[in-house]
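W.,

You were right to be curious about this one. When I first looked at the sequence I had no strong expectations either way, so I just let the prediction run and decided to look at it fresh. Below is the sequence, 184 residues in total, followed by the output.
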Amino acid sequence: MIRQKQILSIVCLSFLFILGCSRPNPTPELIDPIYRDIGEKAALAKAEADKVSEEIKTAKEELEKLPPRDPSLRKMRQDLKNKEAKLVQLEQEALYYEIRAEKRKAYAREDYLKAFNAGKPWPNPETKEAYELVGKLRAAPREWSKSVPKTDRYNRKSIDETRKEIEEKAKAASKGGSGEKPAH
């Protein structure tokens, strides 16, 4: 009888402990998809910067090996200058993503605690969708010619419309309809 009461009390206490104790996650940024994405971008930028840095080292070694009046010397110097400019850009990009990740980490912790205290789910899926949409818009081409189909100067119809029109005329001509010759 005493043994059954002990077992029953242990089961009840463990059940209350499981249901009654909920503590906030100390590292909510690890479950934040935006934070992970920013971290991946930072890692990619660092890797690319390291790759360009190695290319610069090999280019400098090759440049030193060339004789002073070699015809390819000017081209190699220009390539080296371009690679150094690209390295600066990639290092800035990596630093930007590191800073952005730290800011997102602080925001994630603050936002998670607000959601935890309010009893709401976190992370909010709408936030992730908005982040992805902004990323798509930033990556989209900004040139007008990329999004608008090119038309001939005198033919303002789209290519598909022109093809359909030609096919219709060819079908009509093959049936002996209007007697017009099909356009080529």
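Here's what jumped out at me. The radius of gyration is 33 Å. And, maybe more interesting for your project: The chain has six helices and no strands.

Coffee later to discuss?

I.
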